Each structure stands twice: as C-alpha cells, then as structure tokens.
Automatic annotation (TrEMBL):
Residues 1-46 are annotated as: Disordered. One of its GO terms (biological process) is retrograde transport, endosome to Golgi. It comes from the Eukaryota. It holds the Pfam family DAO. This is Oxidoreductase C1F5.03c. One of its GO terms (cellular component) is late endosome. Residues 58-469 form the FAD dependent oxidoreductase domain. Residues 17-31 have a biased composition (Low complexity). InterPro entries: FAD-dep_OxRdtase (IPR006076), FAD/NAD-bd_sf (IPR036188).
Length: 489
C-alpha cells in the first residue's frame, strides 16, 4: 500500500455489485429547494452498531483535511477491523492529498472559532492528536498569541512599483473584482473577555506585546489580543492533513486512489458505489473509461467542489491567495497570528499621489520553522474543474507581500517562497455551515462539507463525529443537530 499513488490496482474497480438497472441511479438529490427546516432532523438511518456482520466498503471523496482526518478517525475507531472494513480515499488531484484549501490555509486552531458544538470537540482532539502523535515535530502544533492589529503601512520604494496598484487588491481579484472577507473573526463577539486578555497586554498605549518585534511599533495604532493563553493554537495544515492520511494507512485497510469522482450510485435509496475517472495523468482525461468503486458508505468531503456531486448542497467556493515568506535568519519571529487592518497611502500615478487611502487586511501567521504565512481577501473567481486547475494571480500575491511588508521590516526583507491560491468552501444559506451527517433518502451517504474559514480547526471534531456515525450508528461526541443535511438540502 503506497501513499499518493493509485493503489487500487489489486481490487476490481470496474463493476458495481449487480443491481437492477431500473432501480439503480446516479444520485441526484430531490428537487426540494434549499429550505431550512425548523425542527431537528429525524433520527439517522445509517444502521446498527459495529457488530460487523457484513464487510464495510467506505469510500471517502476528497483528500483534503476533512477526508484525510475522517480516514484517520474511522481507522482508529475501536470497532475498526482492517479485514472487515475497507476504506478508499478518492482524490482528484494528480499531485496528492491536501492540494486545495487544506494545504494552503493559515492553520489557526481556536477555542473561539465557530460553530461552538464542533469547536469544543475539535480543539481538545487537536490537543490529544498532537500529544499522541508528536504533533509539535510532525505538523508544527503549538499555542500562539493571536491579536487584532491596527495601524499604518509604509510602502518602501524597494518594494516594486509603488504606483502599480500595490494597495488595490481589487485590481488583482476575480473577473468582477469583488472582495470577500474570510470571516474568521465572526466567532469572537461572544467570546472576547477583556479581563481575561488584559495580562497579555503590554503596558504601552498600543497594547503591542513585548515579544512581538516583527511588526513596527511606530506604525502600530493598537493591538488587541483575541483570547487568553492556550485558547489559540496552530498547525501546519499540509503537514497535518498528510500526517492524518499516513496514520490512517498505517492501520491497514486504507487505500489512496487518484481519480475524479463523477457520480454517486444508489440502488433503492441506498448507496452502492462511486463512479470516477481514473486520472493517471494530468489533465484527467474524459476519454478514460469510467470506473466504479463499490461502497456500503460514502463520505462526501470534496470541499468547494461538493455541490458538483450533490447539486442541492448550498456550497460554493471563494478563491483566496496566500504567500509564504522566509524572513532573514536573525529576525525575531515570535509566535503570533495577526488579523490586521492596515491603512496605506494612496498609490502614485505619474508621480502624483492620489487622495484616497487604502485599507488592507491580510492575516499573518508566524510558523514554528521560522516561516511566515500571509493571506489576502477572497474573490469571486469561478470554481475550476479540479483543484489542479486553480489559477494563481501573481498580482494578488504581490499585493499580499507589499501589504505585510508595509508594516514589517522582517517580512519586507524576507524571501517569498510559495505564491498560491485555493478555494475556501462556503455555505450560501443563512447561518452558514458546516453540513455534517447522513443525507435523507440516500442510506449510507454522509456529507462533511462547507467548513468555510474554520476547516483546519474543526476537522478532528467533524471526523470523530462521522466515525461514530458510520461505525457506531450515531454521533455521541457532540450535538450536531443544527448541522444536519436535512436542514440544508
Ligand atoms: C486563505 C485561507 C486561509 C485559511 N485559514 C484557516 C485557518 O487558519 N484555520 C482554519 O481552521 N481554517 C482555515 N481555512 C479554511 C480551511 O482551509 C478549509 O475550511 C478546509 O481546508 C476545507 O477542507 P476540505 O477538506 O473540506 O476541502 P479541501 O481542502 O478543498 O479538500 C477537498 C478535496 O476534495 C477533492 N475533490 C474535489 N472534487 C473531487 C472529486 N469529484 N473527486 C475526487 N476528489 C475531489 C479536491 O481535489 C480537494 O483535495 C482557510 C482557508 C483559506 C482559503
């Protein structure tokens, strides 16, 4: 069994178990419009506890953090027996798992994130996973300071052409140029307790902590801590996601298959398989013969692409750009994550400075290996066919670099490493998501989608809940009724 290669070759993937053609269909959800029910969903139908009377064929669609962490929790469930339960993780990218948002996110894990029911389980699970599997070394787990920074930015002449839209992130965004907030701080309103965060403050007017030396104090108007000690942590999202898959595979009974799922097959209201296009070469060839992986349970975890397989899901994607910067070796990069609001002077055109100032709000994450990650706002670029087709806009990456460099000499003088973009899965219905649970009318079809800006934080809670549902018949670690698919589909 190999990681990141097509390991399905020893299994017959070309046929689904025989079914009456009349009753077999590629799953398409009911024609119900996107309505929200007022009462909790009916009890789940997924089945019995894990007495394992029949073998399980579980197919997870999507090798992002939700899919890979779900593979981990299923394979570590007390009832998991490798000879009786087989898990296939199907991923469309030709470059391996975590090529989307899960490999390109900041990596914040916060007790003040949302929704609370999921966060309460997830944060403690992050702590446990890090302790049990050496998360500090393996995926950069650590507690961090986290604050909201407000101040002014100064663009240096050595930061490229000052007049070329440096502050105008909109110029670098999608077709219609709409800027979208990633909305991470929405969870804070009910959580912020000034008394609790007071000891973290520096006794200076700005509130900047003493060890936060990598932003200019002179340019700082204010710094507000977002939470108390040990309430905010971080992981390296790519390392966490790939570690979850590797740990799942180490249990046996877990295969990684590269291919793009094209349909969910069901017979008599019960899932029987996943149709997919094996993608041995990039781009995935439509001419290649479709294959089917038999399934007793399907877990849909395809991030922003989830509604391409279950069209009634109110999920869309928001593209966001990010960069990594390696500061000079002697730079003091203390462990902080900053949500910034930077007022920048207007760009100059033909030597003339315009009148309007520009507000930029990049998020900046110091990482344990000394690298710094920064991301800009979201935009409305259309969702491409697969994660491998995401277009990276150089200008948007350059904007992020100029903005963070405008408040930090250490970042300005650093070397830019990655310039990347990814699609955040967003839920379009009021109240947001994620959406977690079994789909009514499709026994065995479980969705774990729409994690918006908190999927890294909430992956362990989601995955644990799904493992309980599939292996034990019900979710016991949390009350996730408000996230049930019947409220969204
Ligand atoms: C800039 C940015 C910063 C962020 N920072 C944070 C943060 O600090 N903390 C936090 O908690 N969250 C953060 N997030 C949010 C987090 O990244 C997402 O919520 C999370 O990664 C979603 O994980 P996922 O597995 O659902 O989706 P994805 O990571 O998108 O994975 C879905 C996978 O499914 C695959 N797939 C899609 N369609 C198919 C198909 N048909 N067949 C097979 N495979 C398919 C894709 O190729 C992809 O690999 C951030 C997001 C962005 C964009």
């Amino acid at each position: 069994m190999k990681l990141y290669t097509t390991t399905f070759n020893e299994r017959d993937t070309t046929s689904v178990r025989p079914a009456s053609p009349a009753r077999s269909s590629i799953f398409s959800p009911s024609s119900k419009s996107h309505r929200r029910h007022l009462c909790p969903p009916p009890t789940n139908s997924i089945r019995r506890g894990m007495s394992q009377l029949e073998p399980y064929e579980i197919v997870i669609i999507g090798g992002g953090i939700i899919g890979c962490t779900t593979a981990y929790y299923l394979s570590h469930h007390p009832s998991f027996i490798p000879t009786q339960t087989h898990i296939t993780l199907l991923e469309a990218s030709t470059h391996g798992p975590a090529q989307g948002a899960s490999g390109k996110a900041g990596g914040l894990v916060a007790r003040w994130a949302y929704p609370k029911a999921l966060v309460d389980v997830s944060f403690d699970e992050h702590v446990r996973l890090a302790r049990e599997h050496g998360g500090e070394e393996r995926w950069g787990w650590r507690y961090v300071g986290c604050g909201s920074w407000t101040g002014r930015g100064v663009i240096q002449t050595d930061q490229g052409n000052e007049g070329k839209g440096y502050g105008d992130a909109l110029g670098a965004l999608g077709k219609k140029g709409k800027r979208r907030s990633l909305e991470k701080t929405l969870g804070l309103e009910e959580h912020l307790d000034p008394k609790r965060s007071a000891p973290l403050r520096r006794k200076k007017k700005t509130g900047l902590p003493d060890d936060l030396l990598w932003v200019s104090e002179d340019l700082t108007d204010s710094y507000e801590p977002m939470a108390g000690p040990e309430e905010t942590a971080q992981v390296h999202p790519y390392q966490f996601t790939t570690s979850m898959l590797a740990l799942a595979q180490s249990r046996g009974g877990v295969d990684y298959v590269q291919g793009k799922a094209t349909g969910i097959v069901q017979v008599d209201g019960k899932v029987t398989g996943v149709e997919y296009l094996p993608g041995l070469e990039s781009p995935i060839s439509e001419i290649a013969l479709k294959k089917t992986i038999p399934a007793t349970h399907i877990i849909l975890a395809a991030g922003a692409w989830s509604s391409t397989l279950l069209s009634n899901l109110p999920i869309t994607g928001t593209r966001a750009h990010s960069i990594t910067i390696r500061p000079p070796p002697d730079a003091p990069i203390a462990p902080y994550v900053l949500f910034t609001t930077i007022t920048l002077p207007s760009p100059t055109t033909h030597g003339q400075r315009g009148k309007r100032t520009i507000i930029a709000d990049p998020e900046i994450y110091a990482r344990p290996d000394g690298e710094v990650y920064a991301c800009g706002p979201g935009d409305d670029a259309p969702l491409p066919d697969t994660v491998d087709d995401v277009v990276v806009h150089e200008e948007a990456c350059e904007s992020v670099y100029r903005h963070v460099g405008a408040i930090s000499r250490e970042l300005r003088e650093g070397t830019v490493g990655k310039r990347q973009a990814c699609f955040l899965p967003t839920v379009t219905t009021e109240g947001g998501g994620p959406i977690v649970g079994e789909v009514e009318g499709a026994r065995g079809l479980v969705v774990a989608v729409g994690h918006t800006c908190w999927g890294i934080c909430n992956a362990p809670g989601t995955a644990r809940a799904i493992s309980e549902l599939v292996m034990g018949g019900e979710i016991t670690c949390a009350d996730l009724k408000t996230l049930h698919p019947s409220l969204f589909l």
